[in-house]
Each structure stands twice: as structure tokens, then as C-alpha cells.
Amino acid sequence: MESIKVFAPATVANVACGFDIFGLAVDNPGDEVIVTKRQDDQIVIQQITGDDGKLTFDIQKNTVTVPILKYLSHLDIKHGFDIILNKKMPLGSGLGSSSASSVAGVFAVNQLLNKPLNTEELLPFAMEGERIACGSAHADNVAPALLGGFVIIRSYSPLDFFKINTPADLYVSIVHPDVEVNTKDARHILKNEVSMNKTISQMGNVAGMVAGLISENYDLIGRSMVDYIIEPIRSILIPQFFEVQMAAKENGALGCSISGAGPSIFAFSRGKETAEKVGLAMQKEFTKVNIQSNLFVSSINQSGPKILD
Amino acid sequence: MESIKVFAPATVANVACGFDIFGLAVDNPGDEVIVTKRQDDQIVIQQITGDDGKLTFDIQKNTVTVPILKYLSHLDIKHGFDIILNKKMPLGSGLGSSSASSVAGVFAVNQLLNKPLNTEELLPFAMEGERIACGSAHADNVAPALLGGFVIIRSYSPLDFFKINTPADLYVSIVHPDVEVNTKDARHILKNEVSMNKTISQMGNVAGMVAGLISENYDLIGRSMVDYIIEPIRSILIPQFFEVQMAAKENGALGCSISGAGPSIFAFSRGKETAEKVGLAMQKEFTKVNIQSNLFVSSINQSGPKILD
């Protein structure tokens, strides 16, 4: 195989109560990366589309190529590749845009080299793309983009992560409003200390979310979708957040919170029909204050990156 | 039925990473309460054994009778009962001694009155015994003593709790050293603030513990038995804690931490034989510094209170 086109999915990190430890993949949107073998050992970004010219062609700084360079260096492989990145999702949206690119690129190269590593082993390299994009190597977007499904990062040191069951009828409505939130800012405004009471409440919801997902208890999932630590702070950066959240719940969502660092907002619903109704109701709240938005409705993506063509 | 004898089990609260939200019941030890109907409407504690004279006969302050009084008042029932409490477990041990008494008493009365409430509905009354014993109405001992099994308290306000699956071959070794720790002191030395990093690490372990128990993944259970928040502080009150913990792990325990507020220390093991070996190794560390201890080895009690005779 000389060339491969790979899709990697967008992801919702944090998932209400699980700051830095929960993430899930959706079917749509996502990024496409086309990787082609070269005769020399150069890594060259030939083309980037869909980014409005915002992304760099510098392979030491681009989120697609940094993981590939780390991967090749780790395996001591000298091989060149041409890269085309088709951004099919908004940048800085809280949907794991950089992770989708990182995962698609390193997954594609691993395929072209006949899989010297298995998929899970690609995680540390894909995380290096996250370090470039947001200043620290978080795994809560990268891991679900790579593995699909709902992923728990139990520990960062040593890295310990695993995928859990999710109910088949669980749907995600994601609304991405056309406002800008810088991921680095969204992290800097967080406090360094959490009250013991909030910590206990949050742990209760983390436990409830995990038990609810594995045992397919939709009510318990919904009751556990309360974030005492991050949402009260980050929601300040998102206009209409509480109106959108209320509209989601009033229209039948199990729960609703910020996707990653925002500004995207996600809701869980039981069934696609409810998820679509919820998404439209969320968009309507943004429209009221003249904010345009995109809506994505999806089940939980179980497969992670996908080879296209 | 005029009289009933009820056993309620000891419990391990917190279970390493789940401060105030996790608790589990064991088969042994536990408390026995004998309740007999009276002809009048008085509640009378006739006898208390096994407490070295430490417990009060004042029905407004005893952990058996306070829940019964709240229960009768709530249901507007005027009925008298004679109470005999046989303490079959150490007081102030971190094993939910007061909870076992509270649960046994209110469960017995509910039985004698032909079960006007179901078992779960008894929880708020049993929690009142905890308020008397340690100053606040925590549920992490009371709930597993009442329901059996491993219980998660997702939320205290509103009260939301549920039982999760545990692997059949999971055994608990509990070592109770003959040293005194006051539960109120053990709570007062805790800090009111937790660092964000510790909160995230703890949430990861909470998620890992729940997933590990439900999916019967013993390794994951073991890896999740790390407490970044409470154990580093409370362990100071327990002589030999780290030696005991290390001995447990070196002898095959999945993990080891403080039971409730201590001074009892518990370990999880896969299989009864390992749990017994682990327990003896833990005791040996106390013996080295001339501290006597009791050892209890048990599977997870799945049934809660039990009617005897």
C-alpha cells in the first residue's frame, strides 16, 4: 500500500463530571488525513483544506506531523510521507479537532508501515499532538478518537486507560456556536483548589456515570451529568450557556454540559429522534441572540479511526 | 410476631478512593439486636452487652433507638419496644459499628410491624443513628449495612444511592488494631480544599473502581485502590499503617487502605486463601510493635441484615 485516506472522529471530553478522565467519540464530524509514501525520508505537508489558512505547514508544529515524527523516531524508522489534511470540523470548538488530526495521521502511517504497533500503542504519540495544540499532553480526546467508544483515563502517570460499554440507544447532540474560546484560556481560568464537598459530589457523579453507562441505566446517566467543578467556571465564557442547557433538558435530554473546553455544548438523549429535537432546541437559544451554530447528532462511535475508499 | 433477633453487618466505608461515596458490607463481624413488642408505647433499652459499659441507655442518644424513634414518628405509629443490643464488634473501629446497630434496630422494628416500609426506605432513619454517633448523617456505612453488597452514594442531596455488582471471588481482610481513633477527630483533621490534580487522580480511581467491580476486572480494582485525598492524612493516626499496607500488597492483596475513619485497615484479595494469608501478614506488622489486633476475613456480604433464629 502506497497511500491511505483515514477518517478520525471528533470527541467530547470531560462529559460533564469527568474532567480530564472521560471522553467519547462521535460518528460525525471528524477529520480526514491522506498519507502517501515518499521515496525519500522527508515528511511534507502538501495541502491543508478547511482550516481557513489557520494551520501551520511546519512539521515540527502541526498536530498531524508531530505524532508521526515521534512515532518514527521511537521505532527508529526512516521513511518519508506526503500529508494532506482535510479539516472537516471546526478548530477550537471543544470537539477534539487537534486530536482527530493527530490520530488520523499516526494511524495512517502505522497502517502504511504494516502495523508495527497496535492501535492502543499509538496513544502516547497521538498525545504529543495535544501537547502542541493546547500545551499539555491530555488524553481525554485522543484516547476516544483512537479507540472509539467511551474511554476512561484512570491515570496519567503511568498512563492507564480503558473503554467501557455504552447503551446502544444513547445519542449525542452537539451544538457548536460560532464564538471563539481559546483552549489554553479555558484551562487557565480554572482554579487550582477544589472544596472537599465539591470533590465528594463530583466523585459521586463520576461513579454514577460509569455505573449508569455500563449497566445501561439512562436515568442514572442523566442524574450523574452534573459538573460542580469545571462547568460553573467555563460556562462564563459561553454566551447563552444556561439557556441552551435548560432548553436541552426541557426537550427531553438526559443531561447537557460543555464539550471539552467549549464553546461546543453537548447533550445526551435516549434515541435519535429525541437527540435531534434536543439539538434543534439548543440551536434556537443561540439564534435568539444572533449566534449562528452547527448541529451534529450522532450515536457513540465505537470504532475510532476508519480507512476510507 | 412478638419478638425478633436481627444481625446487621459491619461495613468498610470509603474503600480507598471513594470518600463518603463508597461502602461495602462484610459477613463478619456485625451486631445483634433483639426487639420485643411491649404492651405500652415506651421504647426501653433493656440490656447492652459487649460494649464494656460504654454505650448509653438514653433512647434519645443511643444509635439503636434514635432511628427507631424517627421511624415511628415519621409513620405516626405509637408502639413500645424492648431492646437488647449485643455488640459483636469493636466500637470506634472504623467498621461501621454504630451503623450496624442502627440498621439492625430499625430493620427489626419494621419487620415486627409487618414492613410498612421497604428496606431502602429505612435508610434515612438509620442515617440518624450515624448523626448521633459521628456528628453528621453519612450514608456510606449505613447504606451497605442495610442493602448488603457494594453501595455507591451518588448524592446526599437529594439522597441517591445504589448497589453495584462485585466479583464473587473478591475477599476482604480486615485487621482491627487495639488502638483508639475517634471518628470525629479523624474527620476534623481533613482539609477543606483538595488540589485540582489530586481531584482528577481520585476521580480516575473512582471510575476505575466502579468499572473494575462491575466488569469483574481484579487488576483494575487493584490499580484503582489508591487514595490521594484521605489516606495521606488519616494514616498519620494509625501506627504501622504503611508497614501493614506494604505487607498486604507483598502477600498478594489487590490493594489495601484504611477502613472508614480507621484504625481498622482492610485489603482486597482474589480468593479466600490469599485473603487469609494477607490478613495474617497484616497482623504480623502490628505484632512487631506490640499492638494486638483482630482479623476478619470475609467475602462481600450481599444480603444486609439477617433475621436470626
TrEMBL record, chains A, B:
Keyword entries, A-Z: Amino-acid biosynthesis, ATP-binding, Cytoplasm, Kinase, Nucleotide-binding, Threonine biosynthesis, Transferase
Cellular localization per UniProt: Cytoplasm
Record EC number: 2.7.1.39
Metabolic or biological pathway, per its Swiss-Prot or TrEMBL entry: Amino-acid biosynthesis; L-threonine biosynthesis; L-threonine from L-aspartate: step 4/5
Catalytic activity of the protein: L-homoserine + ATP = O-phospho-L-homoserine + ADP + H(+)
GO molecular function: homoserine kinase activity
InterPro entries on file: GHMP_kinase_C_dom, GHMP_kinase_C_sf, GHMP_kinase_N_dom, GHMP_knse_ATP-bd_CS, Homoserine_kinase, Ribosomal_Su5_D2-typ_SF, Ribsml_uS5_D2-typ_fold_subgr
Residues where ATP binds: P90, L91, G92, S93, G94, L95, G96, S97, S98, S99, A100
Domain GHMP kinase N-terminal: 70-149
Signal peptide per UniProt: none
Broad class of enzyme this protein falls into: transferase
Matching HAMAP family: Homoser_kinase
Family of this protein: Belongs to the GHMP kinase family. Homoserine kinase subfamily.
Function: Catalyzes the ATP-dependent phosphorylation of L-homoserine to L-homoserine phosphate.
Listed NCBIfam families: PRK01212.1-4, thrB
Protein name: Homoserine kinase
Organism whose genome encodes this protein: Lacihabitans lacunae
Organism ancestry: Bacteria, Pseudomonadati, Bacteroidota, Cytophagia, Cytophagales
